Amino acid sequence: MDNPPSNRRLSEISHLFLSDVRNVQTGNAARPIRKPPGSFRGDVSIDLSPEEFAQVFGDPIADASIPPIQTSRFKPVRAVIAHHLGELMSDRIRDLAGTLCPAGARIGVIYADATELRVCCVEHNLAHAGREDEVAVEPLQLPRVEQTIVELNADVDQWLIVLPDARSSESRQVLKLIRNWVLITAVDHDGVVSSYRTIKGLCDAAQPSLSVAIFGAVDDAELHKTHNKLSSVCEQFLKVKVGLLGAIDPGDDMAEHCVLHASANQHGSDQKGHVQWDALSDLALQSSDISEEAAAPAQTPAPASPMPAPVMKIEPAAPAISFSTQAPETKIPVMQLDATLESVIDLPNADDAPTSIIRAIVQGGGELVESPIKAPANGDAMIAVSRDHKLIMLAVASHGLSDLRAIANAYRWMNENRQLIAMAIPQFSIDQHAKPLLRLLVDHADVSADVLQPLMSSDHISVTAYRKLRWGAKTGLLLEAA
């Protein structure tokens, strides 16, 4: 036998040695035979049918008979209208979340205003009920905000967006993108009037699907009575239908966890100025819609009683409003109360003192926060901080305008010492570079005085005329721009 060539590679004959090793190890057992995939599935064919092929590889535009698959990135979103509640807003929103949130579920709540954004998670947790987690304030940056919302979206069942300054242009743009609104109201007369005034100021922003959540109702009759009263006046004057979301009870076992607290005043924030509005707009645009049957709590059937007349009366025994001045009595028919109540502020103790008038305006508007600082030249004037962190002084001029000089000195003192005021109350984050504002309140009998004419042309001074009015046993202030 001829010797094999010396240049023959070992890999060409290595299978002979491997075969011998395999036979020794397996006892000359039959070698495994690879079977095609079809033999493992019996008679089931894995080939695609024409319909399946068109669905997988076809062009969805070319085949209009196949409906597109609807996908949604974010959970359903509701806008909560509650800024008219003032200091009770946060508590009532937590109660609303408890009503919408079944056991084991979570609700995402986002608070956004001109400079701050808070992203919270609300859930049933008796051990941490009523407590809000305190987190460090971070710079307001769009990537951080978007990341927080996307991550929390996987853990919540729906979103509630709260805009404390709902009348700002940015808030209105966000509200236009949200279809479902929830209005929180109380059952008492003042609560219904305040809720109507609030929704009237926003109805021009959009035509949403509006529902009302009522707190304080003792039974179903009072619940439906309050809803009928509010829905009738909204449908008559605003052409807006109001549905009933239901009654909300105190959420004693609800815990609110703050996930992100960002402020535009922090160093490192984006300088664009609309980070929070971009994030909320993206959330609203990409959220899924809410099915009212699935999302709304179970409602008890309304009592079989006739609907009230579509007119909201302030007091059944008082068919008109009369001004408490020496001028001829002015009567306003009940049908015209819609236009008058827009600028009427309750005056609880019917006091003519300047401090009582100023506090009634601040509490009724919900746009200002009183500061503990007092101007030495006029102790009755109030130094407050607006939502855009500007100083504003509210002062009431006495009849005859005899104290205008004292008010002017107080305003000058505030303007010259605004940096010291900002240092004294750092929690308000006062804008030291913005010129303070003066809101001067004068009696309607003095509004035509010549001394006020130069003030009305100033950009930093606003003059408002006021007069007292009574309806029934109540007293209020009617404010009119001078």
Question: Could you explain the architecture of this structure?
Answer:
This protein is an alpha/beta fold. Helices cover 29% and strands 22% of the residues. The protein is built from 14 helices and 17 strands. Strands 4-9-3-2-5-1-6-7-8 form a nine-stranded mixed sheet. Strands 10, 11, 12, 13, 14, 15, 16 and 17 form an eight-stranded mixed sheet that branches. β2 and β3 form a beta hairpin. The longest helix is centred in the middle third of the chain and has 19 residues. The chain is elongated. The protein starts with 13 loop residues before the first helix and ends with a strand. About 15% of the residues have low confidence.
- What is the overall number of helices? 14
- The termini sit apart by 125 Å
- Give the overall shape: elongated
Overall pLDDT, averaged?
75
Fraction of residues in helices? 25-40%
What's the helix and strand layout?
Layout: H1 14-26, H2 50-57, E1 77-81, H3 89-100, E2 106-112, E3 116-124, E4 138-139, H4 142-153, E5 158-162, H5 169-177, E6 180-186, H6 189-202, E7 209-215, H7 220-238, E8 242-248, E9 254-263, H8 275-285, H9 292-295, E10 322-323, H10 337-340, E11 344-346, H11 354-365, E12 368-370, E13 382-386, E14 391-396, H12 404-416, H13 418-424, E15 437-443, H14 453-456, E16 461-471, E17 474-481
Parallel strand pairs: 1-5, 1-6, 2-5, 4-9, 6-7, 7-8, 14-15, 15-16
Antiparallel strand pairs: 2-3, 3-9, 10-16, 11-17, 12-13, 13-14, 16-17
